[in-house]
Amino acid sequence: SLLNFKLVFFSLGLDAATTFKSIFFTRLPQQVAKFGEHKVCALITPGIGRFGFTAVAHPTTGTYGVLQQVAEHRVDVVVNDKGDVADLRYVVYVLNEVRPYEEVANDVHRLENV
Asked: How far apart are CA 65 and CA 67, in angstroms?
């Protein structure tokens, strides 16, 4: 049976719209951002991301030893899975493939109909 998950990811600045469109709308339209008869659904929330990193890190942006503060978007989308979690794993794989982050932080929550 179909399983539904909520995937939360973060994207730098204006990359959220590009990431959302290129991955979910173009490559994975049946698995992501489709909820019932609605499609291309997402909650995109602007915010500020803060991070530091070690001397061996290779971040997309920032200076070693300086606390970084960047404009980011939090993106919440529904992921539909056929029941073996393979679709969910593939969605996360594709997402991680196209995002510029060295370390990726995603949240995945299983959705239940109650």
From this structure: 7
> By three-state DSSP, how is residue 106 classified?
coil
Q: Give the DSSP H or E segment for 90.
A: helix 86-98
Distance between CA atoms of residues 58 and 47, nearest Å: 23
- Identify the CA nearest to 77 among candidates 2, 5, 1, 3: 5
* pTM tops 0.85, yes or no: no
- pLDDT per residue over 62-88, tens digit each? 888 899 998 888 989 888 888 889 989
Two structure tokens written together for 27: 């490559």
| Torsion angle defined by CA atoms of residues 69, 102, 98 and 12, in that order, rounded to the nearest 10 degrees | 0
- Comparing CA positions, the residue from 4, 69, 9 lying closest to residue 45 is 9
